[in-house]
Amino acid sequence: MIMSRESILATLVTASALLLLFSGLIFGFKYKSNADAAANAKEQLNSQQLITSSVLRSMSVFNMIAKAAYESQEDNNAKSKQRVEYIIQKVSTDKCASQLVPSNAASELLRHADQIRQGSASTDTGKPD
Questions:
Q1: What is this structure's pTM?
Q2: What is the mean pLDDT of residues 107-113?
Q3: Which of 21, 26, 65, 95 is 20 to 30 A distant from 118 in Cα terms?
Q4: What is the number of domains present in the chain?
Q5: Which residues of 17-54 are buried (b: 16+ CB within 10 A; e: fewer)?
């Protein structure tokens, strides 16, 4: 059974077509797999960028709060220093400043100062002792 030249050629063309079809399917599946992996990687990248931007935004807000607290503390310290200087100036020129303070007034002032100190000592600074 000898095949004719035309049937051999037809068989070769058919085999080549099947080989091309099979190769196309393999490359198609590989392309689809790579496309899915790329889409997954892009989704992960977007998620990580969102997390990073949220962390940066939170740090920025924290820094603004810390700066405002620091500036407020500095302002309070400056005002306190001004008050002390004002009181010293006024007391030094006042005739009554050289007189003794009545004991009941002095004890009341000391009690009030102790309350202020106790109140500041009981505040939670957030730092361990």
A1: 0.47
A2: 88
A3: 65
A4: 1
A5: eeeeeeeeeeeeeeeeeeeeeeeeeeeeeeeeeeeeee
